[in-house]
Amino acid sequence: MNETYFLSLLIFSPLLGMILLAFVPKEQEQTIKWLGVLGTLPSLILALFAFSQYLGGYDLNRLAEKHAWIQFGKFAFLSSSTFTVDYELTVDGLGLVMMVLTALLATLAAIASIHIKKEWKGYFMLFLLLEIGMLGVFAAGNLILFFIFFELTLVPMFFLIGKWGYFEKERAAYSYLIYNGIGSAILLLVILILFARTGTSNIALLKEMLHNPQAAAQMIAPISTDLRYGLLIALLVAFGVKLPIVPLHSWMLRVHVQAPPAIVMLHSGVLLKIGAFGLIRFGMGLFPEQFYRLAAVIALLGVINLLYGAFLAFVQEDFKMVLAYSSISHMGIVLIGLGALNEAGIQGAIFQVVSHGLISALLFLLISILYERVQTTQLGHLGGTAKTMPLASGFLLAGAMASLGLPGMSGFISEFMAFLGLFKSAPILAAIGTLGIIMTAVYLLRAVLNITYGKAQSRVAEANVSDIHAIELIPVLILLGCIILIGIYPHILAQPLKAPIQLMMNGLGG
Amino acid sequence: MSWDTLMQYKWGIMTPEWIILGVGIALSLIDLLMPNDKSRRPLGWFAFVGVIVAIVSLVALLPVHTTTILNDSFRLDSFGKAFKLLLLFGAAFVLLLSIDYQPREGMKYYGEFYYLFLTALLGAMVMTSSGDLITLFVGLELLSISSYILAGLRKAHSLSNESALKYVINGGISTAITLFGMSYVFGLTGSTNLKKIGMQLSTLQDSGHQYVLALAFLLLLVGLSFKLSSVPFHMWAPDVYQGAPTPVTAFLSVVSKTAGFVIVLRLFITIFAAAPAQGKDPSSMLLSMQDYIAFLAGATMVIGNVIALKQRNIKRLFAYSSIAHAGYILVGFASMSWVMIDSIWFYLAAYLLMNLGAFAVLQIITDQSGSEDISQFAGLYRRHPLLAVLMGIFILSLAGIPGTAGFIGKVHIFLGAFATDPAHYVLASVMVAATVVSYVYYFGLFTQIFFRPAAVHEPIKLPIGAALVVLICAVGTLVFGVLPGMVYHFLDQFQHFDDFLH
Question: Residue A33, Cβ neighbours under 10 Å: how many?
Fold first, then answer.
């Protein structure tokens, strides 16, 4: 099984960029920015290559890697593989889709980082480190490795927010650190309880041990049903911080407002999705019976998220805050889909993860473009951009349309399927939830129409305000292209996800 | 005892101790005969070489089977070998730090530092290998008394004097409590040999006697907490750490603490593990006392981390941080799983690397500026990027972030806490919460180092000794964190210290 290093190469290829960057003098702004963008390309190419091969019928299991790494002591009375943690990478359709999304957004965010004003070298090195962490999360074959990659994102994010952010950046960085620190601490507890009591942290093996009574006999110490509920709820909290689930969301608002927009693209596009990925992979994957029982609660939490985010987005005065609450609202749809517990729901949830990743990245990219020109994101100071920046305004409208779920764009597919799922299993809850969809249209149109066609504001009308540049145009077009592609040809996403979703449904049914 | 029997003992197993003793005596004589105006730096290098030779001799002794001499009062078992290795490496690093140490008030030559340091080290090593209450106590006192003097070495500095006095008084009280506990043990069994005591106590049935033994246990635990700087004897640490010369602080926080855990493990496992008791687990006094240890561990972690939040003086900050780390290690002890000694050894090794590395950076910075305020770290990234990044590694490791030694150490301790049945969920949760609290002050250091502008711009001078420590510790922290398999492979030869009681 060890003949391939493809996944390692994919995950760690940004390291190459980091090493090259280390040798560039820190004053050479252009070289550093170019290297930063180029550093993200190898993983994007590899991810796209793997994706196309997979669409062509390649068996992803052949990419799995495994190398001996740690053994926490050899004990005569235990089998030799007990308490070992191997370096093992494996990927399925879901993981691969997420990796493609991550690699794509990383490249685009690197391009969007041209607006970074200082210390480019440190910025891009941390940026690439962050990318390694994010890519690794989706390919980790055991829980400990997952956690290590998960935490690998924590430190670079702390620096990227705290050093390159806006006015209240340090507070935002601390808020990020503490909330996510608590989240990952809880996650670590869950992981280590499973590891200590079963003797393994391999995800596939854990599934087997938790469900097959024969394999369960090899456990070091029993895992009772109560403990399983406890572990699942702990997972819900741990990933709920990341997602975020209301009321664990306040850190995420600060990060959205204070972090540099290029980082928010990644944060909102990928890091929040790790929460959803974790819930699907571990919550649903390891504890399906308990998840089944808690599904109604999860759907309810989803509806609360959806409505809470939508109503608060409506009253915000800062466009970034509108989008931050919009993210909360959209993550509610992920929970709704998961809580529906049927194929349509889960597919909707995963679609929403990908689609929202693209859409929020697009919107924050446009925010950074706007901010560069008018130095504000307050709705009161923005207005009439359609005159001075017709192209940017057009893209902003398109992004808003995608976000509110206009048919023909990716947002529509995911919302439609998630609600289709929930209407099947909990019609009343779903009916209440649709209110959120309407609110989404209301708050997005309020904000975006105000910006584009509202009363012209002095800052916007100034002569030196230019429209979107060619280099900014590339990422915008790519993102919009992907959004429309998924919207009109959802099969491109549905096909790779088919097998993993089927597997999950089997687990839930059993 | 005739000369012949004396010569029959295998004195060779004490080679590392002999070397340290010899070098210590030689240094004291040289210091006496040396002219007063000569620098004592060569003495430091001599002591360093002596410690390195002792390490080599210890490595040569590693394959030797468990041997005991002097009526089982000195034993070379895998426990002794493994922990002595930690002590010696810690001592070597501290000596490297001390060679370039220059206190501000201009105390130029201090040869006494080196031989007092070596006697302290000798005391710790004797404790590690002792199989008798007498040797254990003599080792403990040798370590303590030498440390008292070391803490007060800066004679012209009022804080140093205060620190030495506080250390003596607290140490005296704790020693008295320890000795009182030992006297009960001796009274119940009539022996000072640990193995004999253990055997005697395993047949202890009288509930009154068990009650006395439990009292002895608690007295010993409280008394020895002084050396661990854990609750309830943690109060001395901040003052002493602040006042003592920086290399001595480093010694107290790493080597002396390691010695404290050595005596705790040695004493409690041999004496109390087999003694029957009443209460939760009647088969073993040690297990029935688990809750008390767990309580002290929890209190230590919480107090250490919470008070550290408010510290502005960097040495006080590290004092509270070291209290907190003692708490983490106590969690490993309180879990009493079969990975207990392994996990404690690993954590102490990781702690040695990351803490001594941090102390080396701390010494470089504070020596140069003369101030110990946390703001001295401001803009370190601008002044010396490499040093800032290496300090970053130590801090990340102390905070327990993956990729560093501290993370693997914590994982191993958690593993012990969860692998037992019933598992220690509450204690582990406290530890996790305490860790998150510690993020605040560790990352507070980060904001100083990386975000704040520098107050002073003069370039940082790197003394060779301290620079060497920083470099070795940083490499070690990363190797322990990324390739811990190598370390565990090394640890395998001790077979989980199963010759502890034989």
Answer: 18
How far is it, in rounded angstroms, from Cα A476 to Cα A485?
A: 14
pLDDT digits (tens, 9 = 90+) for B413-461: 999 898 887 888 999 999 999 999 999 999 999 888 988 888 777 788 8
CA distance B55 to B457: 41
**3-state SS assignment for residue A466:** coil
Residue A183 contacts B, CB cutoff 8 Å:
no
Residue A67's φ and ψ, nearest 5 degrees, are -135, 140
Among the listed residues B416, B386, B400, the one whose alpha carbon sits nearest the alpha carbon of residue B480: B400
Distance CA A121, CA A87 (A): 30
Tens of pLDDT, residue by residue over A439-487, are 999 999 999 998 888 888 777 777 677 788 888 899 999 999 999 999 9
- Respond yes or no on whether the N-terminal peptide bond of residue B422 is cis (omega within 30° of 0): yes
Give the closest residue to A418 by CA, choosing from A360, A342, A354, A488. Answer: A342
Residue A337 contacts residue A460 (beta carbons within 8 Å): no
Which 3 state secondary structure label does DSSP give B350? helix
Contacts of B428 in chain A (CB under 8 A): 189, 192
* Peptide bond preceding B232 in cis form (omega within 30 of 0): yes
pLDDT recorded at residue A116: 85
Tell me the pLDDT tens digit for each residue of B358-373.
999 999 888 888 788 8
Mean pLDDT of B225-247: 89
Percent of chain B with pLDDT over 90: 45
Q: Do A189 and B443 touch (CB under 8 A)?
A: no
Average pLDDT, chain B: 88
Contacts of A315 (CB under 8 A, 6+ apart): none
For residue B9, the Cα-to-chain-centroid distance in whole angstroms is 30
Bridge partners, residue A85, by sequence:
A70
Helix (H), strand (E), coil (C) string for A83-130: CEEEEEECCCHHHHHHHHHHHHHHHHHHHHHHHCCCCHHHHHHHHHHH
State phi, psi for A65 to the nearest 5 degrees.
Answer: -125, 155
Which of B274, B408, B219, B399 shows the shortest CA–CA distance to B324? B399
Residues of A in contact with B439 (CB under 8 A): 177-178, 181
Q: Tell me the chain B residues in contact with residue A189 when contact means C-beta distances shorter than 8 Å.
A: 414, 428-429, 432
Cα gap A294→A306, rounded to integer Å: 18
Distance (Å, whole) CA A186 – CA B428: 11
User: Which residues in chain A touch residue B425, judged by CB atoms under 8 angstroms apart?
Assistant: 193
| SS3 of residue A67 by DSSP | strand
Q: Could you tell me if A222 lies within 8 Å of chain B, comparing CB atoms? A: yes
> Does the CB of A483 have a partner CB in chain B at under 8 Å?
no
d(CA A86, CA B345): 22
Q: Residue A112: is it exposed, middle or buried by C-beta count within 10 angstroms (0-12/13-18/19+)? A: buried
pLDDT at A35 over 50: yes
Q: Chain A within 8 Å of B435 (Cβ-Cβ)?
A: yes
Pairing type for strands B67-69 and B74-76 reads antiparallel
Q: Which residues pair with A9 in a beta bridge?
A: none
Residues 21-50 on A with a CB inside 8 Å of B are: none
Q: Which of B331, B347, B411, B435 is nearest to A148 (CA)?
A: B411
For chain A, give the mean pLDDT. Answer: 89
Q: Does B77 touch chain A (CB under 8 A)?
A: no
> Smallest CA–CA separation between A36 and chain B, in Å?
20
The CA–CA distances, whole Å, from B224 to B170, B174, B251, B259 equal: 12, 7, 17, 10
Q: Can you tell me whether residue B500 is helix, strand or coil?
A: coil
**What count of residues does chain A have?**
510
> pLDDT band at residue B498, thresholds of 50, 70 and 90?
confident
Q: Which residues pair with B69 in a beta bridge?
A: B74
Residue B416 in tokens = 């012990």
